[in-house]
Amino acid sequence: MEEDNSNSSITVDTAKSKDAVWLLKCPLVVSKSWQAAATSADSPQLSKVIVSVDPLHSDESSALKFTMEMGGNDTGNVPKSYSLNMFQDFVPMCVFSETPQGRASMEGKVEHKFDMTPHTRNMEEYRKMCRERTNKSMIKNRQIQVIDNDRGVNMRPMPGMIGLIASSSKDKKKAAPVKGPEVKRTRRDRGELEDIMFKLFERQPNWTLKQLVQETDQPAQFLKEILNELCVYNKRGTNQGTYELKPEYKKSVEDTGAE
User: Is the domain defined by 188-247 classed in CATH 1.10.10.10?
Assistant: First the structure.
């Protein structure tokens, strides 16, 4: 009981609670590039945000245009320029941090929320990177493991377990488990799941959420997050209620299929 009381009385430092911060949802390749640059000894500039203002409509929120240039010279096939799309409406959020010693502090309140898309002039680089990632995911790395005890002693049923094994197998045949909504699904790695999604859309252009949940065996909410980045949702027309790839990703999938 004493331990529970101590854990419930954690003090949060709120000295920065009024500071304004930006929340940026970035692609996985950008996040990995930043992490690699941050751990280097040179400590280079990660990126630069450029804000453009239309002087004729400076009072309107649409007058602001945000772009971002990646820092560093060696970024591989990662696009160098991105457009930052600002959300007008979002749930109020705050940013918290925690030190290795367990001290929590509030870093500020989210003032603007953005997502990133490759700039038009870097779209070809991004398509090339998507093709390389898709081709790499299609390579199967199989391993062979040699069993030291090749006499199969450890594979034999123990005395007294033969009846249990037989009865349990009969029970399984009588009442086969039905996978329902209560079954918990384990999340895959985000990059791996994106590759699987690209393969599925190579097979057919339109999918419903229910079909994609069955194909990927992933939680519906987690799958929606990926779909919002990669796809558009058809609200009307012949494909109503289905998802299809955004034009920039659809072009990448078509190029991969042609190759």
Answer: yes
